[in-house]
């Protein structure tokens, strides 16, 4: 064949590396070249390697010819990541996934290559190369090529290959496995120390140990696993592997392999990989001893088969008694307690010998029984949690700022939403808060936000109550009565006392306060003539000497003042607004205001009575023509400056002052 090793090649087979040719221009050039007929073959083949590197625009440029290719054209897209190829290309091609080679087939390929190159390779090196290649022929041949480059005339040995590949030596692996089989903690940690001292990466050591335990687990389950190809190992290592597999119980091998597998990824990019490896070693020792190695099994069974001496067992605690099961310890303690109880049965008859009449006449229990109800009132003050609804709402309202701050510590969003909220009261055992915004009210009822508010109320007030948020801040609209709002008890609306029409008894004296302010003195009169509004208390003697004034009819404002004072005294001195005067049906309504109101009389513009002595205000004096002429005359007499400049001069002066211009 033309493409076989040593063949002349073929012009109709073209290979393109898409890692470096992945643009639109490259795909257009390929599309133009693909239309030509083959030179010497039946087909023209284009092999595009790393096809997943082609851009989306490049695939779109190539899509038309892939959809409708000529009869002589074949495209082969080679990729390791087919999921990155766009769907329009994958739907128009056949998918042929390449599988990895099995270890026996890979070994045959490597042996044939070494024979063709006339290179001496030890039999124990092939498993290392196969494991490093991961089943890929290309990668395995690349690893073999690197190893052969550093060999001498003696060929490729196991020690040289393990050092070049960085693989853990079989000696370290065997030391770690033997330490786990015998539960030797010192041997396990020494193996870890030797691996670190040899320059091995902890993660690589862990991965190699996991592969080794995988082989042991398969060999224990399938004795002829080597012949069946399930385990790839050199012939000189098969006996060692079988011996190690027989030293563990099946459960112990599975537990150890599972523990290593769950911790191997933790060592990737770890800051202290050695510490993680030592922690893993401690876990493996516990798994091996707990699962039970074959050598440790009879010791555990012998200890379990001798339950008679439970007391001397704690003495050898450093050896094996450290791992005493909890169930065994509880059974041992119960047996000891039963033995102690059975060893002292004598006190029982002594108690029976106590004369029975003694407890009967003792009157002590009776007062004790009477005193026992006394602590019962102690729980009576416990109805604190069951506080009245109004008191709970009042406590929350008084500490609302602290509640919001507490909510903000757990849920900042809920604290912000509570800014405009208001505590309305209690309804059916639920604390109701109101909010004018419906969206925020519904968000406050969200379980996460609502729980934050409930917890904050519990921490601040000490009462745990369910909380709900409603739209609106009116308690009555939320169905909350006045008793459950928690506000101070509202005052009852003051109802003015019904005052009947003023009926003066003929023999009743008039109170001094009802006389009003009295009659004002005339303007400019002597001060001594001004009558006092409130006279000192007069003696009956003075009353007899002074002539009695006839009771005059009170004015309406005086009656209102009297009623106000009476209501003030009736309410205990509390300042209350005066009630409106009662409507007297007999009094006619005032006339409707007219548009053209006549001016008030000049002598009494404000309606004051003439006898009060207050002079009427005088209108402001009007300006006369003489005053205007006087003002003009004074203005004309002021000195003035006449500007005798012409317009051009004025303009030039303005330009020079404002703009700094200079005449030319």
UniProtKB/TrEMBL annotation:
<feature type="compositionally biased region" description="Basic and acidic residues">
    <location>
        <begin position="541"/>
        <end position="562"/>
    </location>
</feature>
<feature type="compositionally biased region" description="Basic and acidic residues">
    <location>
        <begin position="500"/>
        <end position="512"/>
    </location>
</feature>
<feature type="compositionally biased region" description="Pro residues">
    <location>
        <begin position="575"/>
        <end position="591"/>
    </location>
</feature>
<feature type="region of interest" description="Disordered">
    <location>
        <begin position="474"/>
        <end position="664"/>
    </location>
</feature>
<feature type="compositionally biased region" description="Pro residues">
    <location>
        <begin position="374"/>
        <end position="386"/>
    </location>
</feature>
<feature type="region of interest" description="Disordered">
    <location>
        <begin position="304"/>
        <end position="396"/>
    </location>
</feature>
<feature type="compositionally biased region" description="Pro residues">
    <location>
        <begin position="307"/>
        <end position="317"/>
    </location>
</feature>
<feature type="domain" description="DNA polymerase III gamma subunit">
    <location>
        <begin position="161"/>
        <end position="288"/>
    </location>
</feature>
<dbReference type="GO" id="GO:0003677">
    <property type="term" value="F:DNA binding"/>
</dbReference>
<dbReference type="InterPro" id="IPR050238">
    <property type="entry name" value="DNA_Rep/Repair_Clamp_Loader"/>
</dbReference>
<dbReference type="Pfam" id="PF12169">
    <property type="entry name" value="DNA_pol3_gamma3"/>
</dbReference>
<keyword id="KW-0548">Nucleotidyltransferase</keyword>
<dbReference type="Pfam" id="PF13177">
    <property type="entry name" value="DNA_pol3_delta2"/>
</dbReference>
<feature type="compositionally biased region" description="Low complexity">
    <location>
        <begin position="387"/>
        <end position="396"/>
    </location>
</feature>
<dbReference type="InterPro" id="IPR022754">
    <property type="entry name" value="DNA_pol_III_gamma-3"/>
</dbReference>
<feature type="compositionally biased region" description="Basic and acidic residues">
    <location>
        <begin position="632"/>
        <end position="648"/>
    </location>
</feature>
<feature type="compositionally biased region" description="Basic and acidic residues">
    <location>
        <begin position="322"/>
        <end position="335"/>
    </location>
</feature>
<keyword id="KW-0808">Transferase</keyword>
<feature type="compositionally biased region" description="Polar residues">
    <location>
        <begin position="474"/>
        <end position="487"/>
    </location>
</feature>
<feature type="compositionally biased region" description="Low complexity">
    <location>
        <begin position="563"/>
        <end position="573"/>
    </location>
</feature>
<dbReference type="InterPro" id="IPR045085">
    <property type="entry name" value="HLD_clamp_pol_III_gamma_tau"/>
</dbReference>
<protein>
    <submittedName>
        <fullName>DNA polymerase III, subunit gamma and tau</fullName>
    </submittedName>
</protein>
<feature type="compositionally biased region" description="Pro residues">
    <location>
        <begin position="356"/>
        <end position="366"/>
    </location>
</feature>
<dbReference type="InterPro" id="IPR008921">
    <property type="entry name" value="DNA_pol3_clamp-load_cplx_C"/>
</dbReference>
<dbReference type="GO" id="GO:0003887">
    <property type="term" value="F:DNA-directed DNA polymerase activity"/>
</dbReference>
<dbReference type="GO" id="GO:0006261">
    <property type="term" value="P:DNA-templated DNA replication"/>
</dbReference>
<feature type="compositionally biased region" description="Low complexity">
    <location>
        <begin position="336"/>
        <end position="355"/>
    </location>
</feature>
<dbReference type="InterPro" id="IPR027417">
    <property type="entry name" value="P-loop_NTPase"/>
</dbReference>
């Amino acid at each position: 064949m033309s493409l076989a090793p040593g063949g002349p090649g073929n012009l109709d087979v073209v290979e393109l590396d898409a890692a470096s040719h992945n643009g639109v221009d490259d795909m257009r050039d390929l599309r133009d070249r693909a239309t030509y007929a083959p030179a010497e073959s039946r087909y023209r083949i284009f092999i595009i390697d790393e096809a997943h590197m082609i851009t989306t625009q490049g695939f779109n440029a190539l899509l038309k010819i892939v959809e409708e290719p000529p009869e002589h054209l074949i495209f082969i897209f080679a990729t390791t990541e087919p999921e990155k190829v766009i769907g329009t290309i994958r739907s128009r091609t056949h998918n042929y996934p390449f599988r990895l080679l099995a270890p026996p087939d890979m070994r045959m390929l490597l042996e044939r290559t070494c024979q063709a190159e006339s290179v001496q390779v030890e039999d124990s090196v092939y498993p290392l190369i196969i494991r490093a290649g991961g089943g890929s022929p290309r990668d395995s041949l690349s690893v073999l090529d690197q190893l052969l480059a550093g060999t001498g005339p003696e060929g490729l040995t196991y020690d040289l290959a393990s050092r070049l590949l960085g693989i853990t030596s079989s000696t370290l692996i065997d030391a770690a496995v033997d330490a786990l089989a015998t539960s030797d903690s010192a041997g396990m940690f020494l193996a870890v120390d030797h691996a670190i001292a040899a320059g091995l990466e902890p993660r690589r050591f862990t991965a190699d140990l996991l592969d080794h335990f995988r082989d042991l687990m398969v060999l224990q389950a399938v004795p002829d696993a080597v012949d069946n190809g399930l385990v790839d190992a050199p012939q000189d290592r098969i006996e060692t592997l079988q011996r190690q597999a027989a030293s563990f119980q099946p459960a112990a091998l599975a537990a150890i392999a599972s523990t290593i597998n769950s911790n191997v990824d933790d060592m990737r990019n770890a800051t202290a990989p050695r510490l993680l490896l030592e922690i893993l070693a401690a876990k493996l020792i516990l798994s091996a001893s707990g699962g039970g190695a074959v050598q440790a099994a009879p010791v555990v069974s012998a200890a379990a088969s001798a339950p008679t001496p439970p007391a001397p067992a704690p003495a050898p605690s450093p050896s094996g008694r450290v791992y005493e099961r909890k169930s065994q310890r509880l059974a041992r303690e119960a047996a000891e307690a039963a033995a102690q109880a059975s060893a002292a049965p004598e006190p029982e008859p002594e108690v029976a010998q106590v004369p029975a009449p003694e407890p009967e006449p003792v009157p002590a229990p009776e007062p004790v029984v009477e005193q026992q109800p006394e602590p019962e009132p102690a729980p009576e003050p416990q109805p604190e949690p069951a506080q009245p609804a109004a008191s709970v709402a009042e406590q929350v309202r008084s500490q609302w700022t602290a509640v919001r701050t507490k909510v903000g510590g757990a849920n900042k969003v809920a604290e912000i939403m509570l800014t405009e909220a208001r505590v309305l009261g209690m309804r059916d055992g639920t604390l109701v808060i109101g909010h004018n915004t419906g969206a925020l009210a519904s968000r406050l009822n969200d379980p996460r936000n609502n729980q934050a508010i409930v917890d904050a109320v519990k921490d601040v007030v000490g009462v745990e109550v369910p909380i709900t948020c409603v739209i609106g801040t009116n308690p009555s609209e939320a169905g909350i009565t006045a008793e459950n709002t928690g506000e101070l008890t509202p005052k009852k609306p003051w109802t003015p006392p019904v005052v009947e029409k003023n009926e003066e008894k003929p023999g009743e004296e008039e109170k001094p306060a009802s006389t009003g302010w009295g009659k004002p003195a005339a303007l400019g009169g002597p001060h001594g003539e001004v009558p006092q509004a409130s006279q000192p208390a007069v003696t009956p003697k003075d009353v007899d000497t002074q002539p009695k004034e006839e009771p005059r009819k009170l004015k309406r404002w005086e009656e209102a003042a009297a009623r106000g004072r009476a209501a003030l005294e009736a309410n205990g001195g509390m300042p209350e607004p005066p009630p409106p005067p009662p409507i007297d049906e007999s009094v006619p309504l005032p006339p409707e205001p007219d548009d053209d109101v006549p001016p008030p009389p000049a002598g009494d513009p404000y309606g004051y009575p003439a006898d009060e002595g207050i002079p009427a205000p005088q209108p402001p004096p009007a300006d006369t023509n003489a005053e205007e002429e006087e003002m003009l005359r004074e203005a004309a007499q002021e000195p003035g400056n006449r500007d005798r400049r012409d317009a051009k001069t004025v303009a030039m002066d303005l330009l020079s002052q404002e703009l700094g211009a200079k005449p030319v």
